[in-house]
Amino acid sequence: MTGDVSEPHEPSPAEQLIELGDLTLRSRRAGGVHTIALSGELDLATAGDVQRELERAEAGDAASIVLDLSGLMFMDSTGVRLLMSAYARSRADANRLTLLRGGPAVQRVLEITGVASRLPFAD
Amino acid sequence: MPPTSLVQFVSRTRGAGRQINVCTGYQSRLKECLPARAENIALLRRAVVAYAGSNGASERQREDIALAVSEALSNAVLHAYVGRDSPGDVGVDAWIDDERALEVVVCDDGVGMLPRTDSPGLGVGLSLIARMTEHLAVESPDAMPGMRLRMTFAIG
Q1: ipTM reported for the complex surpasses 0.90
Q2: What span, in angstroms and rounded, lies between the C-alpha atoms of B125 and B100?
Q3: Does B63 sit within 8 Å of A41, measured CB to CB?
Q4: Distances (CA, A) of B77 to B30, B107, B129
Q5: How far is A97 from chain B (nearest CA, A)?
Q6: Once rounded to an integer, what is the mean pLDDT over residues B42-54?
């Protein structure tokens, strides 16, 4: 989880906090970087909203889009498909996308499905 | 290994206005049925994971179970009631078998297993489920509509 999620504060105008049932999505534009931080559980119920927010960031002019999975505790194949399609779009779009690693269960799903080494994780 | 003391896992999850209380003692049975909508997947997934935990499943085993059950439920939501105006139900039934393994059945009374060319979901989901389970059986009985997916997990 990113530090600012644990401190209560109102999102600034350049930041949106979206509560989606079992998933929290924090979308923040700062300078040339658009960060979308996910926490909780990503499945069929919540993937559509993540997809929409991601496409909204992609339609903007941020030089870098960071999808922060560090607060994500659960993901199934819905999330795997979401990440892989985001990566495919990024490859055709100056490789703007970077991912920050999720919790152990999340990384394990990506390893099992054989995509972990292909996705653009930072570090 | 069966728990040596009574472990109670309590899971209260809310979704779509429903609440499932899973407060089980050692070895009782979980049976729950909800409309096959995406927002009900987490509810049922967490109920099965809580049940597994109350019967001695480790954290890693609960992760496997969460993933497999989520895939099975997603298949039902995506495929079972295609072409219908409103979805039917998806059910989970979980119990401990004679070999002390966890049995989980996910079932629906939808269209059954049809060849699909328009969606990649079902294939990926089933192969992932197979990786997580000791045993996997797909049943689409001719006499009844729908599909039953029976998963066996080693726990404890």
Answers
A1: no
A2: 26
A3: no
A4: 20, 11, 16
A5: 24
A6: 94
Q: Which of the four pLDDT bands, split at 50, 70 and 90, describes residue A89? A: very high
CATH code, A15-112: 3.30.750.24
Q: Indicate if the pLDDT at residue A61 is higher than 50.
A: yes
Which pTM does this prediction carry? 0.84
**Inter-chain touch B71–A112, beta carbons under 8 Å:** no
> For residue B78, which residues of chain A lie inside 8 Å, CB to CB?
44
CATH number among 3.40.50.20, 3.30.565.10, 3.65.10.10, 3.30.70.20, domain B10-153: 3.30.565.10
Query: Is residue B40 pLDDT above 50, yes or no?
Result: yes
Residue with the two structure tokens 């990384």: A107
Q: Is A112 on the interface with B (CB under 8 A)?
A: yes
Amino acid residing at A123: D
Q: Domain boundaries in chain A? A: 15-112
Beta partners for residue B135, in sequence order: B152
